[in-house]
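Many introductory courses stop at the sequence. We go one step further.
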Amino acid sequence: ESGVSSSGLYLYGATCLALHGDVQLDTITSMGYRAPSPRVWRIATTAGNSIMTIKLDPGQVELGADVVYIDKEDDSDSDEDQPMNQRQNRSRLANMEDPDDPESKPDDRIYMLASSKGVQAVTALVDVLDCLPPDSDEWEELLASAVVAVAADTSKALDELQPSDWEMLPLTDINEEFGSLKVGNPHLVGGGFDLRPGHRMKLMLRDSQGMKGDLQDALLSYKRKDLAALVSGESQMPPAFGMLLLSDVSRGATIYSDGNVEPRLAQSYIPVPTSGLFGGVEH
């Protein structure tokens, strides 16, 4: 049986591509994640594959004392103007006023702890929530698309970290009692990743905005390198003659209003004949 339906759609089978001769394959990788908040954290304490407490990365301290604003007793008008999901989830964290200093403010206390002793790991989630538009998705929808990006190389400065240095770990659970984040692949023993104090982390989202923006950045980076090699005379290969776009099913019409967003974007930077396929899984 051929596997082709009456509409011309192939339901099963195989597609083969044969390349012969001196062929060079360049890869452009786009994972499709974006970081709503500019803050990067250091893991302070862990328990297995759970992140218990975090601290601001030293390179992030200058961002100021607005790490997160939490005060369960605050009934001000400004708080009433906030979306319900933001107010509800801020109240999940403890009031961190300094009892020894009646003049202290909750955000000052949090800033001090975040830059020295550390705060509950769930603070990173609230920080991301603060960076989203007021009419953004509900808290549950945010968690459904959130991943924890962890950089294990502690020898590099923050600005030296490359996209390949970050390991994307699924956020599998939130412990509201301890404010911890559980990460890793639940199908692997120990979560599949060795979390250690000192590792950098940040919260990432995967949505249409992140997917399109990340792919655009990757294409632009490739184009710049290609043009730089051409101008310097280092490029010994002829121009590209074709492009294959390999994507998982979540990056098609299921998340974009149009099914050809990414092929058109890729061709706008690399105008060559394009083909490709979807895969059912990412790993």
